[in-house]
Amino acid sequence: MPRFPPGKLPMSFMEKIIEKYLNPDKKLESGRKIIFGPHAGQDVAVIDIGDKYLVTKSDPITFTSESIGSYVVNINANDIVTSGAKPIGFQPTVLLPENKTDEILVDTIFSDMRTKCDEFGITITGGHTEITVGLDRPIICGMMWGEVKKEDLITTFGGKPGDALILTKGIAIEGSYIISKEKEKDLIQHNFNPQLIKNCQNLLNSPGISIVKEAQLLHGNFTVHAMHDPTEGGLAMGIVEMAQNSNCGVMLDYSTIPLISGTEELCKFYELDPFGLIASGALLVAVPKENVGQIVSFLNKNNIQAAEIGNLTKNHGIFSVKYDNGEIKPLKYSPIDEITKIY
């Protein structure tokens, strides 16, 4: 039987697994109702707790161990805020490598987690830490939750045909950062511009992989039909997940999609598709077409780069890209992230 490669499992297979084993009863023993349970392309679960919804999320850091403490808080908080919720609590499972773990490593990880949680007003309520056999680097699996007013919930299911797609910052912040850190020696040996490497290694901080600010600004000031945090599989996979869940198709304008400085050079060298490169740090939003100008202007005034990159269509399941020469081609996408090719 064929083995799966690193990265996300195929959506079609995961949908079968969810249907077979993970489709929860719609009511818990407490009587609380599950509004959204496991679903491909929907990164949070939503539970009715009375006058509000409880929003829960889990996500690991596996591709890199650099700044892993703040990293894991950021990527979990990103998904909480894309639902319209405010992050409240966090519980990490910290798995540390044998023969490589000392007090300095542990202190650094927890100091970084504490600092990032304090920035977002999140309480660390518990977790688990151990030395794990077989690891060559730390891995942290985070679990986070938040709350949202029922009328303010946002999901990947709310997009509508004709909605404009807005992307903040650009692609691929996280992927370019990982490549510059994990392949630094290789890049230097191949005479890459040292300043380009340095700039990419700073992407974790500037513009950063957090989308908390822009997500909160948007759902606090505008009508938003759907939000998504494109991660593994890159922008392409994130767009397909949102479109499929919203029963829409997609038409993208290639010329409008912003690339982070350094991404094109790194992708060309390692023969990677930037559209499929892990893209944390960018926020994908579906909004009414008539509000695009106001939203982009608002974000820019708040020092957040934003661009309209296409729109959702009524052609469910058809995902297309229009290029500068007017040619229209199918959007290439895969759950297997391009970053796996560098290892």
Automatic annotation (TrEMBL):
UniProt cross-references to InterPro entries, sorted A to Z: HypE (IPR011854), PurM-like_C_dom (IPR010918), PurM-like_C_sf (IPR036676), PurM-like_N (IPR016188), PurM-like_N_sf (IPR036921)
CDD domains documented for this protein: PurM-like1 (cd06061)
GO biological process: protein maturation
Domain of life: Archaea
Occurrences of domain PurM-like C-terminal (ranges): 160-317
Family: Belongs to the HypE family.
Protein's name according to its UniProt entry: AIR synthase family protein
